[in-house]
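Good morning N.,

You mentioned wanting to compare the apo and holo forms, so I went ahead and generated the holo version with iron/sulfur cluster. This is what I fed in:
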Amino acid sequence: MIKKLAYTPCEREAEFLAGIEDPKHKREIINGLSPFFKERAPEDMLSFYSDDEVTKLRVLKGGERDVEARMPVKITRHYFELAKKSPAIQRIVKASPDETQDLAGSEDPGYQMDYSPVEGLLHKYEMGLMYVVNTCSAHCRFCYREELIARKDVLRQDGTVAKKGLAEIPEITEYIRRHNDAVAQNGGIHPEGGREKLREILLSGGDPMVLNNAKLGAWLAALAECGIESIRIGTKEMAFYPQRFDDAFLAMLDRFHETYPEVGLHMMIHFEHPDEFLQKDDDGNYIENAQGFKLWVPETGKAMRNLVSRGWLTVENQTPIIKGINDDPDALRIMQREIKRAGAENHYFFCGRDIVAYRAFNVPIETAWNILNESQKGLSGVETHARLSITHYKGKTEVNAVTNKPIPGLAGSENGVVIFKILRNAGPAPDRGKVCIVGRNPNALWFDDYEDRVLFDEAGLFDYSRVKKPGAAPVGSSAQQ
Ligand code: SF4
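and this is what came out, ligand included:
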């Protein structure tokens, strides 16, 4: 049995933690399909699934196509109220038999576990990502952490099979200190990985905002004490339950900033569609005031104002473009405009990853690029900061351009080309800026759909072997990895 490390907060940490308050929250969560199958959900929520939908989902229960086994079902009261007027929101959280028709895809997209030196931590890039919790207030059907949330077994590179575990403060802070000591003693570069100081951490999961303030504060303080300079909190709580951003939470953030003013904080929010934060009338139109400004849902507008008014933190939105939800330039145009108007930043749009059942959710790569490009027509420069990213096994990659015309003299470009550019890759990002050009394939959902039309690949996206570690099982060589 592995002995657990102990962790004792220092005096400064203990003082910060002692002042944290944790009022109770009433998310009114409906968990699973059972409350709908057994008609035990609140009466007004039962109609979220029609009788026909319930029958079709019930038939799949317990079999290979059980939608809940792939991804647990969950919704809050707040999100349900928004969903009543929004087909897009319904599609985000409402289970459908279609999602398990084709279960092709990866249980560990991008083989993230290859870069997990400590349970719950991914240290692939210059920054670290941590799984601090394995659920959210509601669950998106397209989630690319479905293996974590559904507690699935994942094959690791050494051939063992295990569920993804969560990060624990003692083990993580020990790793960060050891890594950063080795970096300091080696002139600023780690002697093995080639990376610099680990100075940035993304708290992720699941959604860290389902943790209480005490637990969240404990993470923030522990990371600050071991030298982390910048902390991001990845959350969709602003959409699912904006009431979570209440006075007690804001007071915790304020006290954290007073205690650790040198640490940067970033709220990485996740709005998928403007229906998640704008008020709609009974006809489904966005409500505007006399001056033509669109009105935000009051709780969401308040949460956003309270965050952006704290100049020492940033609020940044990132969202995948998903079939039937936001594959709509008009919706994305409104979303980018409103997010910037609220004082937040449009950070990234993503193409869907190769998760299990990805064909049910992913928009073709070229279509996603066109949708984003169309959506940004009519936006100002400050509203169009977001880029389109797709996460190759090698690292975060931008879908940089899609042409409609051939490149003269370049065989294979007759239908136009797609240009990918590496934004980050493992270690100190040695391939950042390198590009890959492929002939177009309008149906391509993932890199392997371009394998037969690679024209130029200095990025090495199609000539990639998974890094083999000592004692690891044999690995193949494919862009799909
Ligand atoms: S909020 Fe994020 S982590 Fe949670 S279910 Fe949705 S996509 Fe997955």
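The longest helix spans residues 169-185.

Happy to go through it together on a call whenever suits you.

Best,
F.
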